[in-house]
Structure formats: C-alpha cells, structure tokens
Write a structure and sequence with these properties.
The chain is built from 14 helices and 14 strands. It is an alpha/beta fold. The strands form two sheets. It has a seven-stranded parallel β-sheet, with helices on both faces. The longest helix is centred in the middle third of the chain and has 33 residues. The two termini are 20 Å apart.
C-alpha cells in the first residue's frame, strides 16, 4: 500500500530571519517520500536553498534586490522610512501576487506555507481555495488583545495601573494603525490588483482574528516559554525555533583569549559602523578579551578577516553554528536568529536592540532573566552591561530555556498541522 504524496509549496522572503527558520522547519521532511516540497523565495537565496537539497523557484527573478531593498533601510525606522517601505511593498506585491497565482494554478499543490510578511500570498491561496499555514518566527507580531502590545519599544506586562493603562492605550494604537494603513494603502491597492481578493479579504475576521494570518493554522517558530502573553489564537501551534542544518567548516579562534561574538544581523546597514565603534571602546577597556565582529554579509564571506585592533577582528560573515561552540559570550541586537542560537548553545548574552522587533525580544529576555539588555543610545549602559556579563555566574534561567528549546517536538507538530489542514 502506497501513501499519498503531499505537494507542499513553501513561500518565504530571501531574508535570513524569515527564510532560514522555514528551511530548518522543512528540512526533516526532505527524506520523507510522503512529501514533495518546493521552496519559493528571492533569487539571491536560491543557492542556499538548493545546497540543502530543496527544489526551488525564484520569486520576481527580474527584481533580485527588491526584498532586501524594502527591508534594509539606511537609517533607523521612522515615519518617513516606514511610509517608503509600505509604498515599495505594495508596488512589489502586485507582481508577486500575479506570479504566485500563476505558479499555484500550474503546480496545484495540496497545501502551502506562507511566511507572515508574505501575507498577500495567503490572500491568493484563499482566492484559489488552497489550504495554507502561516509560518511565523516572530509570534508576538500577532496583535495582542489583553497584554503588552509589540512594536512599541519593548513593552512588558504591567506592574501597576499606570503601566496597565499604557499597555491598553498601546494596544489601541497598534489596532488603529493597522486599520489606518489598511484603509489608506492596502484596500485601495487590492481593489486595483484583484477585485476577487478585494471582496474576499477582511482585515479582521468575524472571530476577531487578523486576516493576514491563516485561518487554517499558524506555525509559531519561537518559544512559548519566552512569551509573557497568553492570548495567542487557538489555532497557533508552537514548533520551537528552527534553523537549517548543514556541514560546517572548522572555525578557529584568532587568539586564546576569552572571546565575544558581536553581531547585529544581516540587515541594519546604518548600524554596522556604530556597532564597531562600541566594540572598539569595549576592547580598549578590556584588552584581555577578544571580540569577533560579523558584518552579516553572506555574499562577502570569502573576504579576508580584518584585524581592527589586537583584540578586535571583523569578519564579513560568520555562521553562528560554526562559531558559537567556541566563544564565551555574545553581544547581539535581539534578532530572532542569534537570540535562539545563543540560547541553543547556552551562551550568556548582552542584547543591544537596534530596530524593528528587537526591543520586544530584548524585553522578553530581560523579563525571563535570560540575558542582559543595554541601550544603543546610552554607551554607559553598554559598558556597565558588559562588565556584568563578564562577572555574572548565575545563568540558570537561560540554561532552563536551553533545555526547553532542545526538547520541542517540531517535526511531529509540523506533520500534525499539515494533516489537520488536509482533513
């Protein structure tokens, strides 16, 4: 008796923090004959996808840099850059939705997974009657109805009535902002792009859940234990953090000194030099510590290492899985990838959030007592935080998270979610 082969279409943007968790999620299914998986992403990441053994196809191949250009800004996010991102994303979405609809009509998959920032592709799936699941490495992006809202600088649960009022007003502000953006930009664009989707799509469904997320299921690629809110949708499943496993070259430290990995991820070009300035200051104050700084440029990873100072080395790119077993500490920006990699390897961390969701991740780590947090705007807090990083010996909370992270039944829950959708 032969089992049915499930055709699975996987959609994710070519951004490390979105694509790599999805590749790690799907990787265990590659050797399962019951699944036929095709990954759809930007052309710049096709070599990575192919090297892992996936079938793949480029999205918007004639616009290779469009996704990076939208996500990576020259300055910290503000009203002007946000407006530019919204306009650029809407312009891009018309071509993307047209291409994906053609792909789905031609390939006829049984189910699709759609990264949460690719929400318009979920609209296309609904138009065609195709079951789909949202993949989300940042689950707190889902609107909170009862607790601290996200994207407002890292709010935490209230400790008094003033903070409770602050959070309530914040939830209202987030809700109102989404409605405003939908009415001013998205609704008008959908009316031009596709009258069918325009009629079908609702920003909020009758049950109050957001229309940008799948009604069939949400795959949360994070840790429930790090969340202080409990009001996630009932159809959300926690699968744990995931990353693609591959053969790694041996990594050799440049010195025998205690070593700190320093990163602010693959985006944030405006923050690279300022981070290096911070590291130089720390290195001068701590000549007995070695700092490895990664610029996060995967495309330039073959360039030679720069010795900035006797105890500071800048790499264009370092694979976290290759370097983390060898370092003692991590200074990072609060991106999901390095955050979970640090926990997975049990490395104490100082978090200096820069932009986007990083303040919310920092707030969760601080709330859990699993990392130290400093402010990019306050150099004194960074120096104080680093001294505490070196001197602190009790990392029980972080070690507990490490144990919990390593025990998530990810594959079992993924296959169960797919099976539920296909019933």
């Amino acid at each position: 008796m032969t089992c049915r082969v499930i055709k699975l279409a996987v959609f994710a943007p070519p951004l490390s923090g979105h694509l790599y968790p999805v590749l790690g999620l799907m990787q265990p299914l590659l050797d399962n004959p019951n699944y036929d998986i095709t990954v759809y992403t930007g052309v710049t990441k096709l070599p990575v996808v192919q090297a892992l053994g996936f079938k793949c196809q480029a999205l918007l191949p004639d616009q290779p840099d469009v996704f990076d250009n939208i996500a990576s800004t020259d300055t910290k996010l503000n009203a002007s850059t946000l407006y530019g991102q919204i306009q650029a994303a809407i312009t891009m979405c018309q071509d993307l939705m047209t291409q994906v609809e053609a792909i789905l009509r031609e390939t006829q998959p049984d189910v699709a997974t759609v990264d949460f920032v690719f929400a318009p592709l979920g609209m296309v799936c609904d138009k065609l009657g195709l079951p789909w699941l949202t993949t989300n490495p940042t689950p707190f992006s889902i609107e909170s109805k009862t607790d601290a809202p996200a994207f407002l600088g890292g709010l935490k649960p209230p400790l008094n009535w003033r903070q409770a009022l602050r959070n309530r007003l914040g939830r209202g502000a987030v809700h109102g902002f989404k409605r405003l953006v939908y009415r001013l930009f998205v609704k008008k664009a959908l009316k031009r792009f596709d009258p069918v989707i325009y009629q079908q799509f609702k920003l909020y469904r009758e049950n109050g859940e957001e229309g940008f997320y799948s009604p069939y299921g949400i795959l949360a690629l994070g840790m429930e234990e790090l969340e202080f809110r409990k009001d996630f949708p009932a159809h959300l499943t926690w699968l744990g953090p995931t990353y693609p496993k591959k053969a790694l070259a041996d990594f050799r430290l440049p010195t025998d000194l205690p070593t700190v990995l320093v990163t602010n991820g693959t985006l944030l070009p405006w923050g690279k030099e300022s981070l290096l300035t911070i590291v130089k200051r720390l290195a001068q104050a701590h000549p007995d510590i070695c700092f490895l700084v990664t610029a996060g440029s995967e495309a330039r990873q073959d360039q030679p290492v720069e010795a900035i100072m006797d105890n500071v080395y800048r790499y264009q790119y370092i694979d976290y899985e290759a370097v983390l077993p060898h370092v003692d500490y991590v200074i990072h920006h609060g991106g999901a990838g390095i955050l979970y990699a640090s926990i997975r390897h049990g490395k104490p961390a100082l978090v200096i959030p820069h932009d986007y969701d990083q303040f919310d991740y920092a707030a969760r780590l601080e709330w859990a007592d699993a990392a130290l947090v400093a402010s990019l705007k306050r150099p004194d807090s960074i120096e104080a935080g680093f001294k505490q990083l070196l001197s602190r010996t009790d990392w029980t909370a972080m070690k507990t998270l490490q144990d919990q992270l390593l025990t998530y039944p990810t594959q079992e829950r993924l296959e169960a979610a797919i099976a539920r959708v296909l019933k």
